[in-house]
Design goal:
By secondary structure, this protein is mainly beta. Helix content is about 10%, strand content about 30%. A 6-stranded mixed beta sheet has the order 1-3-5-9-10-7, with helices on one face.
Length: about 140
C-alpha cells in the first residue's frame, strides 16, 4: 500500500490557489512564468481550513520552466504571514526540478530547493534558505 499524495496540476491557471490538503503542485504543459501561486491559509479563523505546521508542499517542475523566469509565491492572508522572511510575495525561479514550501507554524513559510536558484529575488541562496528552515526547526 502506497502513501496517498494530493497532487494539483498547474497547466493553465494564471493564479493557482492551494488548499490545506495540497501535497504537491505539478507544473504541466504550460509555462507558469509570470503567474501566481497562492499558498494555503494558515491563520483562518476556521482552524479546519488551515495548513498544519510542519508540512511541506512540493513544487514539481520537470519541464524546467522555473529556470527561464520567476513565478510569484504569495500567502492567502494579507497580513501576519511571511515567506522566506518577507511579508510581501516573493518571486521564485530555480534550476531545480523540485522546490519545497514548508509551513513552519506561527505564520512562517520557507520556500527552498536543494539546487542553485537562477534568480533569487528574496536575497537568499538555496543553502541559506535551507539553513534558515533548519534553524527554525
Amino acid at each position: 500500500m502506497g502513501i496517498y499524495r494530493n497532487i494539483t496540476d498547474w497547466s493553465t491557471a494564471t493564479t493557482l490557489t492551494l488548499d490545506r490538503y495540497t501535497d504537491e503542485v505539478q507544473i504541466t504543459s504550460a509555462n507558469p512564468v509570470g503567474n501566481i501561486l497562492v499558498l494555503p491559509p494558515v491563520n483562518n479563523t476556521s482552524a479546519i481550513l488551515n495548513r498544519p505546521a510542519g508540512t511541506t508542499i512540493w513544487i514539481n517542475d520537470q519541464g524546467g520552466f522555473l529556470g527561464t523566469g520567476a513565478i510569484t509565491i504569495e500567502p492567502t492572508e494579507a497580513t501576519g504571514v511571511t515567506i522566506n522572511g518577507s511579508s510581501s510575495p516573493i518571486a521564485w525561479a530555480t534550476l531545480a526540478d523540485v522546490s519545497y514550501a514548508t509551513y513552519q507554524g506561527d505564520g512562517i513559510w520557507i520556500v527552498f530547493t536543494t539546487e542553485p536558484l537562477s534568480n533569487p529575488s528574496d536575497g537568499l541562496t538555496s543553502n541559506e534558505a535551507i539553513a534558515y528552515a533548519i534553524a527554525l526547526g
